[in-house]
Write a structure and sequence with these properties.
By secondary structure, the protein is α+β, with helices and mostly antiparallel strands. It has 2 domains: 213 residues, Fructose-1,6-Bisphosphatase, Chain A, domain 1 (2-Layer Sandwich); 112 residues, D-Maltodextrin-Binding Protein, domain 2, CATH 3.40.190. Helix 1 packs antiparallel against helix 2. The two termini are 35 Å apart.
Length: 342
């Protein structure tokens, strides 16, 4: 990977993790308020004080890497400037703003490292439940529960700092009891993940991997198909209906934000059809984690081609994320023809 010639990929992921948890702490502080300071952007999507604060924190941390950054809440950078970027950060400071406003806990901080248009590494942090997903292409993907607590404890103890060697054997597989799905993603405005990030200033270490569990980590009976919590559409629901007829042991898994892609990486779901336009920063981090876990994210109209990033327009075509190539082959005839409507 050419990005590793001048940059240590593990240290870059450390920076991304640090930025995501610090941003998550700021988001949770706003989450505890009565007024989120909601405004409407030009595209009619909502933005809150939390979005803007998270952007500023991430830009500050990642700015020290010397790599360019493209963020949903950052300045509009012309393609003429961006097209020369080989290695850059692609960020959504608060993915799932509608989930945040609804207080259902299913929002994330997304930080991706993109190289030559391909997702090289990704960090997705769910601050309301304090769960961290990381992935590096060709190296593996991991989930760390109680992330702010674990990383803060490691920083204080020094158990995972000051030693920058690659840990033997790759990812550690010990992990705290996951709890039930209802406990992890129960919503209800849970304010459990309120780590301040104050002990996350120590650089080095790989606790996001050595203390995490390798993905995929879940094996379910039948087939799980992802559905959007906030954006159900007729095309997707028709696809889910056809899929359920073809595979009788189908279960629908509903999530908000990039948690849908993380469920593919975990193995909680097997396929995620997206037949609506979506921005590059919404998918890049989750895409990297799916890829690192052994799955794929491909264009719905061209299933032999994966999503690519840093295009002239920062919009993705329709896509399908999946774990099993045979499953994709079995549903090709169900995929609707793509058009340009939203």
């Amino acid at each position: 990977m050419s990005g590793e010639k001048n940059h240590n990929i593990d240290e870059l992921v450390n920076k991304a993790v640090k930025s995501a948890l610090k941003a998550g702490a700021a988001i949770m502080e706003v989450y505890g308020r009565d007024d989120f300071g909601v405004e409407t952007k030009a595209d009619n999507s909502p933005v809150t004080v939390a979005d803007l604060q998270a952007h500023n924190i991430i830009a500050g941390v990642l700015g020290r890497t010397g790599l360019p950054l493209l963020s949903e809440e950052g300045r509009d950078i012309p393609f003429g400037e961006r097209k020369a970027w080989r290695l850059f950060w692609l960020v959504d400071p608060l993915d799932g703003t509608k989930e945040f406003i609804r207080r259902n806990g299913e929002f994330t901080v997304n930080v991706a490292l993109v190289e030559d248009g391909n997702p090289l590494a990704g960090v997705v942090y769910g601050p309301a439940v304090d769960v961290l997903y990381t992935g590096i292409a060709g190296r593996g993907a991991w989930r760390l529960d109680n992330a702010s607590g674990v990383l803060a404890a490691e920083a204080v103890s020094g158990n995972d700092t000051g030693n920058r060697r690659e840990p033997a054997g790759g990812a550690g597989r010990t992990v705290a009891d996951r709890g039930t799905e209802a406990d992890r993603w129960g919503g209800g405005g849970s304010n459990r993940g309120t780590g301040t990030g104050s002990n996350l200033d120590t650089e080095g270490g790989y606790a996001w991997r050595t203390k995490g569990v390798s993905l995929p980590c879940t094996s379910k009976k039948g087939y799980g198909i992802m559905a959007s919590r906030s954006f159900p559409d007729k095309r997707t629901m028709t696809f889910i209906g056809d899929f359920s007829k073809k595979f009788s042991d189908t279960r629908i898994v509903a999530r908000g934000s990039s948690l849908k892609l993380c469920m593919i990486a975990e193995g909680e779901a097997d396929i995620y059809p997206r037949f609506r336009n979506i921005s590059e920063w919404d998918t890049a981090a989750g895409h990297a984690i799916v890829l690192a876990s052994g799955g794929r994210v491909v264009q719905a109209a061209r299933p032999d081609q994966q999503l690519v990033y840093n295009k002239r327009e920062s919009t993705n075509p329709w896509f399908i994320a999946f774990r099993n190539c045979e499953l994709l082959d079995a549903v090709r005839e169900m995929i609707p023809p793509e058009n340009n409507d939203k």
